Known about the structure:
By secondary structure, the protein is of the alpha/beta class. The protein has eight helices and ten strands. The strands form two sheets. An eight-stranded parallel beta sheet has the order 4-1-5-10-9-6-7-8, with helices on both faces. It has a two-stranded antiparallel ribbon with strand order 2-3. It is globular.
Amino acid sequence: MLNKNIETFIGCDAEYEEAKIVLFGAPFDSTTSYRPGTRFGSRAIRQESYGLETYSPYQDEDLEDYAVFDSGDLELCMGDSKIALEQIEERAKIILEDGKLPFLIGGEHLVTLGAVRAVAEKYPDLHILHFDAHTDLRQEYLGVELSHACVIRRCHDILGDGRIFQFGIRSGERAEFRWSEEGHVTTHKFNFDGLEDVLKKLEGKPVYFTIDLDVLDPSIFPGTGTPEAGGVGFMELLDAIYESCYALNIVGCDVNELCPPCDTSGASTAVACKVVREFLLALLKKHK
Length: 288
């Protein structure tokens, strides 16, 4: 059993026993390849969420009508990616063993690997739905295999071919795109075209849903470590989240790569807060 966090994401203050979804933060950015600061993302999202209402006019749903537990941020080993990932995996395992859905807030994208390890152990037929600007399919980055530039490749090491579906991708080495085209991963470039077909293919299968917020255009979301021009719009992202959550059996998920120091206006944090709220409500609405 996990203890209640003092400061929670707005509307996520239920008791652990009654919660269907459990939030936990992974404040980690030790492998960030460009602008650091994502370690502050989960705390900023939690603190700034109080600028939002619990009610979503987009979905006509309210977080106050549901039970969500926020267990706070993990105290991660910042100097060792291996240990940090083990800590994330252990927290996700506890949540899964108690029959709840783990909702991870990063942090850099590498944190996803820890949660995926735990979820894949419980669901051997796991598939991944991945929204991102970057392929994250490198075998290594500057000689390191545990890097946010390699996270989806490491997830592929666990799941194998044909079980990872990417959308919004607009950046990566040529070798990453070529490797994907060989049938290892299904990569949809630039937007969400083809999402409906993928959702039909994944119907009934256990799915881990990971969202790197730099899938958004930097004109909307500049507060990220590796911004890429040409991204999707805010409502495009929300619509894709709704479609995915309503259609799929999502058994674990995350939102990551908010870097608050890269946007001191707070606008990017406000965007991230609303994405988390809408993501949560879409998951809860599906299982009403």
